User: Which sequence fits this backbone?
């Protein structure tokens, strides 16, 4: 297990660095699940676990000074557990959540510690040496990387067999319940995202997407295309120049009722 | 005073260094050192022949507290470059005020457009492919996201430099940003709506038997409105979050209810 644990930790370190730098998003659950699956020889299972966790964490976002649960480590450990114990997505999701919350605490500590380097840069500033002051900027990055990579390494190396034993000892009805909840959990991500996106005037488009999918079975890409068309039409119609003010007020009233 | 002229190459160097913005993010001054690090090529060129005292002033100004949505730091860097190119430390207080004045509104805008709308759109489309076993979703999500996000970084620096504060004023003045945000939100809402029936699955296992007659509740519900339960579950979460319940609580609530209902044979 040493080799795969090391590879997973290496990937985690790189993806964690991305989160603090270019943010090309190679640490999102969708990518983390697939990469972990690839490393552990079950790409398909990795994609499934990654997609489920991605949807669950869709609305969890670092804004301002808020540090969210670390979806990256949660997904890597969750996928590893799901694949290595043979329990699949059920175990993966159940493990991903506590891991993400634990690493969130480590992250908060690392972000507190990082102030040390800014103070060193303050000192260097007094000499007027640009390069010397700038040098301190990258020094905390390895700490951010290690606060993710080490938990992943240890969890995969040591933790998996305990989890395997744990799931082996679990009564069947709890495993059933976990499987059921795994299918419901994307609703958490969608609901959370809705609270951020929902707006009286345009809330009805949520139902439109639902109907297109539930009744007509249109896949997501198709709905996205219809969504782009709808957005353009809405923009055209609501930004027409020289519209009578009375008509505008009427329309607002009618739309106001769609308070979802 | 010798005239220093910034080139496209200098601004591109800022673009590349901006990629490292949050490497020293901390609770005291957040992105401050990262801002200085990104701005370094400009500072080095402008203050090349200045005394160490002048340089210290320039460094200290850019080590002040700073935090905004990373990609939207780009236009601030661009505007900042244009200002210091002309007047160096004499515009110091203007630059500080500008940074503080812009970082708040741009953070709100950037969070709303990129983190809360565009990224969920890209990655939920990607997830729908991966959930069906098709890895092309990875490419779709990453390319869609980065074309927009890196585009903002690159053009933000150059446009900010060329047009100055006018750039941001123009953008917010004729409500273009507002309109694009609304359009992206419509797209996001439709995609989420479409994903609910595909990704949330709630199956009623309970079958009522009256003599010969079997009542399969799942089929009954599907006959009325397909995916009604997933829709209700999503609205349920939405309502609870809006009432201020924490997501971890809701999460464990869902798991607990699932275990109980599966144990009773109602869900399966």
Assistant:
């Amino acid at each position: 297990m040493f080799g795969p644990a090391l590879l997973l930790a290496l990937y985690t370190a790189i993806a964690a660095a991305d989160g603090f730098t270019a943010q090309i998003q190679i640490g999102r659950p969708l990518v983390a699940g697939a990469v972990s699956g690839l490393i552990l020889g079950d790409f398909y299972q990795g994609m499934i676990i990654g997609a489920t966790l991605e949807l669950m964490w869709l609305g969890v976002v670092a804004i301002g000074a808020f540090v969210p649960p670390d979806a990256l480590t949660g997904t890597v450990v969750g996928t590893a557990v799901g694949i290595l114990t043979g329990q699949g997505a059920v175990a993966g999701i159940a493990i991903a959540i506590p891991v993400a919350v634990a690493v969130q605490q480590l992250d908060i500590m690392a972000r507190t510690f990082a102030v040390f380097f800014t103070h060193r840069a303050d000192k260097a500033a007094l000499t007027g040496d640009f390069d010397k002051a700038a040098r301190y900027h990258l020094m905390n990055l390895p700490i951010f990387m290690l606060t993710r990579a080490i938990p992943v390494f240890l969890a995969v190396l040591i933790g998996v067999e305990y989890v395997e034993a744990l799931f082996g000892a679990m009564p069947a009805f709890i495993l059933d319940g976990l499987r059921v909840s795994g299918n419901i959990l994307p609703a958490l991500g969608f609901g959370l995202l809705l609270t951020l996106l929902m707006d009286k005037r345009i809330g009805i488009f949520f139902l439109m997407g639902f109907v297109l999918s539930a009744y007509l079975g249109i896949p997501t890409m198709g709905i996205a295309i219809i969504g782009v068309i709808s957005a353009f039409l809405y923009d055209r119609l609501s930004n027409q120049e020289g519209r009578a003010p009375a008509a505008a007020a009427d329309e607002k009233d009618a739309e106001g009722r769609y308070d979802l | 005073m010798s005239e220093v002229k910034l080139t496209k190459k200098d601004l591109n160097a800022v673009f590349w260094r901006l990629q490292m913005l949050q490497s020293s993010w901390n609770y005291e001054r957040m992105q401050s050192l990262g801002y200085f690090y990104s701005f370094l090529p400009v500072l080095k060129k402008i203050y090349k022949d200045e005394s160490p005292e002048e340089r210290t002033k320039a460094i200290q100004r850019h080590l002040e507290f700073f935090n905004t949505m990373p990609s939207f730091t780009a236009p601030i860097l661009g505007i900042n470059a244009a200002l210091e190119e002309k007047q160096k430390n004499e515009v110091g207080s203007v630059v500080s005020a500008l940074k503080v004045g812009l970082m708040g509104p741009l953070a709100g805008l950037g969070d709303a457009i990129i983190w809360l709308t565009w990224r969920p759109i890209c990655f939920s489309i990607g997830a729908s492919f991966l959930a069906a076993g098709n890895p092309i979703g990875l490419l779709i999500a990453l390319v869609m996201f980065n074309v927009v996000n890196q585009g903002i970084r690159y053009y933000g620096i150059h446009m900010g430099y060329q047009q100055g504060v006018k750039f941001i004023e123009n953008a917010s003045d004729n409500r273009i940003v507002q309109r694009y945000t609304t359009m992206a939100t419509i797209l996001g809402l439709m995609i989420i709506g479409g994903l609910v029936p595909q990704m949330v699955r709630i199956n009623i296992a309970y079958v009522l038997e009256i003599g010969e007659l079997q009542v399969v509740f799942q089929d009954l519900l599907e006959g009325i409105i397909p995916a009604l339960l997933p829709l209700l579950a999503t609205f349920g979460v939405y309502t609870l979050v809006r009432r201020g319940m924490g997501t971890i609580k809701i999460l464990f609530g869902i798991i607990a209810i699932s275990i109980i209902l599966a144990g009773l044979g109602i869900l399966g």
Remarks:
- The two ends of chain A are 50 Å apart (CA to CA).
